[in-house]
Design goal:
233 residues; mainly alpha; Methane Monooxygenase Hydroxylase, Chain G, domain 1; 0% strand
Length: 233
C-alpha cells in the first residue's frame, strides 16, 4: 500500500526538524570553537570554563537528533534521498559532537597554559583556528543548501590546515632548542594545534557526507575539485 499524503507531510516535517536541529548544533559548535580560540589568545579563564560547561548542550543536541532520526527510520522506513538525509544526519552529528569535545579540550589546555608565563606569539594557531572555523561553517552551509561544490572546497581547505600545522610544529621545536624551560608550554600548544587539525578533519567528514547525501556516491579518496562533482553525477 502506498503511503498517504498525510504520511508524506509528516515525514517532510520531521526531516525538516532534523535539518534545523543539525544547524542549531552546528552553529553552537562553531561558537564553541570561536570561544575556545578567544579563551586561548586572551588568556580568559572564565570564558574557557564557560565553554567547557556549554559542551553538555552540544551533547544534548546530539542525543536529540539521534533519537529523532531513529524514530523517522522506524515510523516511515524512508528510502532513496530521504534515507540518505537521515544517514547523513546521524554521521554529521557524530562529527559535530566530537568537534565540541575538541573545543572543550582546547579550553582545558588553555587553562593549564594560563598557569605559566605566555609563550608569544601564538604563531600559526590563530590562522589554523580561523580556517577550521570557516570549514565548520561552510560544511554546514553546504549541508543546508545541498551544495556539493562548496562541500568539495571545504575538503580542499584541509590541506591548508595540515601545512600550517606542520610549519607550526617546526617553529615550536626551535623554542625548545633555544630554551628547554618552554617544553611544557610547547607541548600544550602542539596539542591545541592538533585539536584544531582534528576539528578540520571532522568538518571535512561533514562535507564528504554532503556530497554523498546529494549524489548518493562517496567523494572519499577523490581529488576535491569541481571536476569531482561531474564524476559523481
Amino acid at each position: 500500500m502506498e503511503p498517504s499524503p498525510h504520511t508524506y507531510r509528516h515525514l517532510d516535517e520531521d526531516l525538516t526538524a532534523v535539518q534545523h536541529k543539525i544547524l542549531e548544533m552546528g552553529t553552537l559548535v562553531e561558537e564553541q570553537v570561536a570561544a575556545a580560540l578567544s579563551a586561548l589568545t586572551e588568556r580568559d579563564a572564565k570564558l574557557a570554563r564557560q565553554t567547557i560547561a556549554r559542551d553538555h548542550t552540544v551533547n544534548r543536541l546530539d542525543t536529540e537528533i539521534d533519537g529523532l532520526c531513529v524514530r523517522i527510520l522506524a515510523r516511515y522506513q524512508p528510502t532513496a534521498r530521504d534515507l540518505r538525509l537521515i544517514t547523513t544526519g546521524l554521521k554529521i552529528t557524530t562529527d559535530l559532537e566530537r568537534m565540541g569535545d575538541l573545543a572543550a579540550e582546547i579550553c582545558e589546555w588553555s587553562l593549564e597554559l594560563n598557569e605559566e608565563p605566555p609563550l608569544l606569539p601564538l604563531i600559526d594557531i590563530p590562522a589554523i583556528a580561523r580556517i577550521a572555523q570557516r570549514m565548520v561553517r561552510e560544511s554546514l552551509d553546504a549541508f543546508v543548501h545541498e551544495d556539493p561544490e562548496l562541500a568539495l572546497r571545504v575538503c580542499a581547505a584541509e590541506n591548508e590546515v595540515d601545512a600550517l600545522n606542520d610549519q607550526l610544529f617546526r617553529i615550536l621545536l626551535t623554542y625548545i632548542a633555544e630554551s628547554p624551560k618552554t617544553v611544557s608550554r610547547v607541548v600544550r600548544l602542539t596539542l591545541i594545534a592538533q585539536c584544531l587539525e582534528r576539528i578540520a578533519d571532522h568538518a571535512t567528514n561533514v562535507a564528504e557526507m554532503v556530497v554523498y547525501m546529494v549524489h548518493g556516491k562517496s567523494s572519499r579518496h577523490l581529488a576535491p575539485s569541481l571536476e569531482t562533482v561531474a564524476q559523481l553525477h
